[in-house]
């Protein structure tokens, strides 16, 4: 029996908690991609870099607050600086929309042109971020490291295996819940949110109903900027901030959005967790779990790992391909914003 | 008057400008530099031709250019490197059995799907799941020990299976086949769905190809690189010792060492020009043929083309595979030119993006434009670094040499290149979406 | 009104009009420009000549959205509901330009179409064709329009549903709304019409009361199938 519980604890410690954290980060990122797709109707390749940009501004805010001696310990100071980062990302999004996207929108350019434009912007924003903060690693986490560590857990329960919960993990999961709840409240309960859904559902009818398209687009960018910054900051707190890693997040984020059905916020969130859980579960070495669960003398020689950790990214791709083959409209098809 | 003259002779004028730029570099920075740039320009131009087939002819957006190029590079290694007999003895059989199991798994999956999937999708999916799981486990059973054995063979020099030891030129068509195969699979999955799914799927496949060649050391040596690939052209050392060449260098009034390095580069350039000429001939002929007209008709109005009974998805698959094959060819050529295979050198998005900018700046839909774009963009990509540094240096010359802003700007000049290319693309899409040499279409009044 | 898409004029000096509480129906063969006339009235098509008058005011140069504010409601033939939104949300979106309390208007629509009240929490995309049309008309009613334009409201619904829809449309007209509609089912539509316009090649061929047109042998022979 203890063996069984120990096995469960290993799974919780190495799969459940990290996947919930990573899944929350992906879900918030995919939510941003899905919003752009739902309203502006293109796949936004610049989203990863926008996450990096918002995070960068948050980091500057954090450093400023730290220099002033402001602290909300045990929580990381970065949470306090988030509004600044959001403001920065929103401002940049709106400026780029005015100067770049608007022109193509007025000409009713095809989605693939928007996609190429967004790739151009991706390199522009990426260059901007690397120019301002440099390509290197930045660690901006402060506050308490663990809510409870593996040792605390072992001591409290008397088990052989420990379960740790890092502050960043708890902060990520809780923030994600709050943001997602706020997002759904906005989309489903407010007039502005409903008008966004209406615009996404049927643009012409929305226009006939007197919904102002410019306003819808503006609100979309505001939400996207905010989501990008929050997702990026949570990721940066949990791992570390490195401009390049945000480029690497693009594929899992797109995969999450498509798995859930692009344009569908609920799907984006579910997709985020599906991708995160699969990535971590498939690349996890189950040796310990098998040892606990198997007969007493049994001990596997290999790591009992389905796929090397290096192939993490392949997992999101394989899921993406399966979804494209089996159900190209995504798991939650038929429902847009 | 001047405007019409320019428009009429647009192509020759722009190509002359390009040639002049290379000559300026030749005179200013040396001919060796000029030919290095030219060779890479030629390879860029071929990649750009491949992308142009997909985008310009058919409107397909491929974000995985570097993945296909890397497959070409892999072909160069597998074809040309001498086999490592010891490694083959150690693990060759296991790998072979693993591969056979892989093929058998795929084969059985397809059969099972045809048998059961047609009747009930649910049974079909479960069957597939079980077959793939069993096949995968069996494959790993044979693969893993063999991989370990192979990688243990003299890891600092080999540690991989090696190649077939054939002339490297043969790898060029093989690279095409590799890339075409990957493109076929991706195309089958993503074509016919929304246009951006292809973009995301190609991004995915290129990332995976790159992870694969970085990690599968038994095949590619991974991050340890494969060096010293055989060449299709003479080696400098041999040239320097040949009497005819010493005579030849003396006739031109050059140092033997310098002449030999230049000679090698000229040989490469000659080879590449032959390839590009053949490709240009084929693609121009294809574009003008009924097939090319049909492709463009499909691109301009998919719905109408489908209504006329054209199988749009199938045509798209054809052109996607052909275009990717051309990119694979360029990839094999690039590795041949480098003489080494460095998996970490392929940056999936950055260089893909560069190729895209080549096509769009050059003129999508026009082969001459795509080639010119390849030349221009590569040229400025290479020259941007010295130009940028010089610019920053000049602009900040009034500051203290150790001023933080000056140092920061000097450090960042390298990142500014991609940013500049991004801005160039955005400007081009807005103000000159047709590119330098626009597609020739029937004149509209 | 004269106008059309691109170079060709689809409408040629065509005149249509409707008064408060009246139902006017535009009928005619395929390609006669019925829907085009409707779109021109609503400002979705630039006019080359002529004008659109509303309550004695020239609104020829107003955009469709601005006409909604003025008191025009339009129900397109297809894609006329927000499929992913609930019935009630559809109605709310119909009233988007209104700043005042809309609950009374929603109640009015529910009185008119009781089935919608039952299905208020259901996404409109899950409703049947006839119910969807009710949602579409209800959505347009939410701005409390003075004139309601309906583009083939009965397209693709069964005859029974069609009769019911026409009954509702009469009820709407009785509340003082002017109704202008384009119809394929000419016979039934003319039966409820106060005014009928028969369009052929973009021009008025016959204009009369619905009853008179139904009695007119020429109209019967050419357009109503005897």
Kindly describe this structure.
- The complex is a heterotrimer of chains A (337), B (445) and C (226).
- Chain A has a single domain, classed as ABC transporter involved in vitamin B12 uptake, BtuC (Orthogonal Bundle), CATH 1.10.3470.
- Chain A is 73% helix and 1% strand.
- Chain A has 14 helices and 2 strands.
- Chain B has 445 residues and is mainly alpha-helical.
- Chain B is built from 18 helices and no strands.
- Chain B has helices at 2-8, 10-29, 31-57, 65-80, 85-117, 121-152, 171-190, 195-215, 217-220, 236-241, 243-252, 256-288, 290-300, 302-307, 312-338, 348-362, 367-395, 404-431.
- The longest helix of chain B is centred in the N-terminal third of the chain and has 33 residues, at 85-117.
- The model of chain B has no long low-confidence stretch (mean pLDDT 86).
- A 6-stranded mixed β-sheet of chain C has the order 6-7-8-2-9-10, sandwiched between helices. A two-stranded antiparallel sheet of chain C has the order 1-3.
- In chain C, helix 7 links the parallel strand 7 (147-151) and strand 8 (178-182).
- Chain C has 10 helices and 10 strands.
- Residues 1-8 of chain C have low confidence and may be disordered.
- With 226 residues, chain C is an alpha/beta fold.
- The two termini of chain C are 30 Å apart.
- The A-B interface holds A 42-43, 45, 100, 103-104, 110-113, 115-117, 119-124, 126-128, 130-131, 134-135, 247, 250-251, 254-255, 258, 302, 308, 310-311, 313-314, 316-317, 320-321, 324-326, 328 and B 59, 61, 63, 125, 144, 189-190, 193-197, 199-201, 203-205, 207-208, 211, 214-215, 349-350, 353, 356, 360, 411-412, 415-416, 418-423, 425-426, 429-430.
């Amino acid at each position: 029996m203890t063996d069984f519980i120990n096995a469960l604890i290993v799974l919780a410690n190495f799969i459940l908690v990290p996947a919930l954290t990573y899944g929350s980060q992906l879900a918030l990122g995919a939510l941003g991609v899905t919003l752009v797709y739902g309203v502006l109707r293109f796949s936004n390749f610049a989203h990863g870099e926008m996450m990096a940009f918002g995070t960068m501004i948050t980091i500057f805010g954090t450093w400023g607050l730290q220099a002033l001696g402001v602290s909300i310990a045990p929580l990381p100071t970065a949470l306090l600086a988030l509004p600044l980062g959001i403001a920065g990302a929103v401002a940049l999004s709106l400026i780029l929309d005015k100067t770049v996207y608007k022109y193509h929108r007025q000409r009713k350019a095809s989605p693939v042109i928007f996609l190429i434009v967004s790739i151009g912007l991706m390199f522009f924003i990426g260059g901007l971020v690397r120019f301002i903060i440099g390509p290197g690693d930045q660690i901006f986490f402060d506050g308490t490291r663990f809510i409870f560590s593996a040792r605390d857990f072992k001591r409290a329960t008397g088990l052989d295996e420990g379960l740790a919960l890092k502050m960043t993990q708890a902060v990520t999961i809780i923030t994600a819940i709050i943001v997602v709840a706020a997002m759904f409240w906005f989309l489903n309960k407010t007039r502005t949110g409903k008008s966004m859904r209406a615009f996404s559902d049927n643009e012409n009818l929305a226009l006939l109903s007197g919904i102002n398209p410019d306003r819808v687009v503006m609100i979309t960018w505001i939400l996207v900027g905010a989501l990008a910054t929050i997702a990026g900051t949570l990721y940066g707190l949990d791992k570390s901030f490195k401009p390049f890693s945000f480029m690497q997040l693009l594929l899992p984020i797109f995969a999450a959005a498509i798995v859930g059905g692009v344009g569908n916020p609920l799907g984006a969130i579910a997709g985020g967790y599906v991708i995160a859980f699969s990535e971590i579960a498939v690349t996890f070495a189950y040796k310990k779990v098998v040892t606990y669960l198997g007969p007493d003398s049994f001990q596997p020689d290999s790591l009992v790992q389905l796929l090397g950790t290096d192939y993490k990214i392949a997992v999101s791709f394989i899921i993406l391909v399966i979804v494209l083959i089996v159900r190209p409209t995504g798991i939650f098809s038929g429902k847009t914003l | 008057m001047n405007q019409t003259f320019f428009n009429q002779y647009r192509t020759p004028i722009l190509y002359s400008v390009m040639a002049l730029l290379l000559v300026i570099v030749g005179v200013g920075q040396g001919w060796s530099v000029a030919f290095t740039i030219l060779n890479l320009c030629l390879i860029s131009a071929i990649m750009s031709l491949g992308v142009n087939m997909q985008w310009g002819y058919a409107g397909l957006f491929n974000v995985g250019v570097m993945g296909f190029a890397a497959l070409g590079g892999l072909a160069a290694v597998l074809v040309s490197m001498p086999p490592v007999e010891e490694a083959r003895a150690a693990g060759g059989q296991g790998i072979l059995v693993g591969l056979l199991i892989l093929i058998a798994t795929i084969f059985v999956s397809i059969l099972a799907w045809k048998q059961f999937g047609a009747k009930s999708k649910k049974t079909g999916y479960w069957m597939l799941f079980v077959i793939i799981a069993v096949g995968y486990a069996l494959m790993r059973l044979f693969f893993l020990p063999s991989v370990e054995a192979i990688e243990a063979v003299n890891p600092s020099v080999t540690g991989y299976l090696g190649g077939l030891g054939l002339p490297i030129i043969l790898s060029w068509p093989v690279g095409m086949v590799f890339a075409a195969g990957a493109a076929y699979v991706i195309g089958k999955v993503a074509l016919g769905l929304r246009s951006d799914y292809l973009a995301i799927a190609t991004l995915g496949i290129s990332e995976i190809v790159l992870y694969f060649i970085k990690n599968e050391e038994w095949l590619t040596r991974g991050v340890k690189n494969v060096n010293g690939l055989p060449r299709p052209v003479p080696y400098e050392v041999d040239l320097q010792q040949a009497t005819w060449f010493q005579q030849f260098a003396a006739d031109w009034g050059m140092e033997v060492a310098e002449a030999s390095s230049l000679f090698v580069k000229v040989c490469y350039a000659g080879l590449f020009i032959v390839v590009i000429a053949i490709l240009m001939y084929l693609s121009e002929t294809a574009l003008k043929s009924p097939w090319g007209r049909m492709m463009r008709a499909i691109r301009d109005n998919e719905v109408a083309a489908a209504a006329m009974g054209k199988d749009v998805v199938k045509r798209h698959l054809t052109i996607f595979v052909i275009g990717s094959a051309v990119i694979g060819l360029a990839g094999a050529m690039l590795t041949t030119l480098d003489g080494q295979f460095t998996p970490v050198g392929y940056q999936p998005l950055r260089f893909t993006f560069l190729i895209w900018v080549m096509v769009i700046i050059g003129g999508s839909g026009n082969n001459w434009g795509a080639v010119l774009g390849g030349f221009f963009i590569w040229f400025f990509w290479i020259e941007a670094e010295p130009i940028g540094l010089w610019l920053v240096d000049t602009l900040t010359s009034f500051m203290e040499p150790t001023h933080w802003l000056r140092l920061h700007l000097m450090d960042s000049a390298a990142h500014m290149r991609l940013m500049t290319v991004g801005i160039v693309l955005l400007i081009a899409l807005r103000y000159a979406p047709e590119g330098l040499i626009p597609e020739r279409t029937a004149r509209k009044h | 009104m004269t106008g059309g898409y691109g170079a060709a004029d689809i409408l040629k000096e065509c005149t249509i009009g409707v008064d408060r509480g009246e139902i006017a129906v535009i009928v005619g063969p395929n390609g006669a420009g019925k829907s085009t006339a409707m779109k021109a009235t609503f400002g979705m098509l630039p006019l080359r000549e002529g004008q659109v008058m509303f309550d004695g005011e020239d609104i020829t140069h107003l955009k469709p959205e601005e006409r909604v504010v003025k008191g025009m409601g339009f129900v397109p033939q297809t894609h006329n509901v927000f499929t992913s939104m609930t019935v009630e949300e559809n109605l709310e979106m119909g009233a988007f330009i209104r700043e005042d309390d809309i609950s009374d208007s929603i109640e009015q629509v529910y009185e008119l179409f009781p089935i919608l009240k039952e299905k208020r929490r259901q996404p409109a995309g899950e409703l049947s064709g006839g119910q969807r049309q009710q949602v579409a008309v209800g959505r347009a009613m939410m701005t409390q329009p003075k004139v309601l334009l309906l583009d083939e409201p009965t397209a693709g619904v069964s005859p029974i549903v069609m009769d019911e829809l026409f009954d509702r449309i009469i009820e709407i007209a009785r509340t003082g709304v002017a109704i202008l509609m384009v119809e394929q089912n000419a016979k039934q539509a003319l039966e409820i019409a106060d005014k009928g316009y028969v369009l052929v090649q973009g021009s008025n061929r016959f204009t009369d009361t619905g009853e008179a047109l139904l009695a007119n042998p020429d109209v019967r022979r050419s357009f109503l199938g005897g």
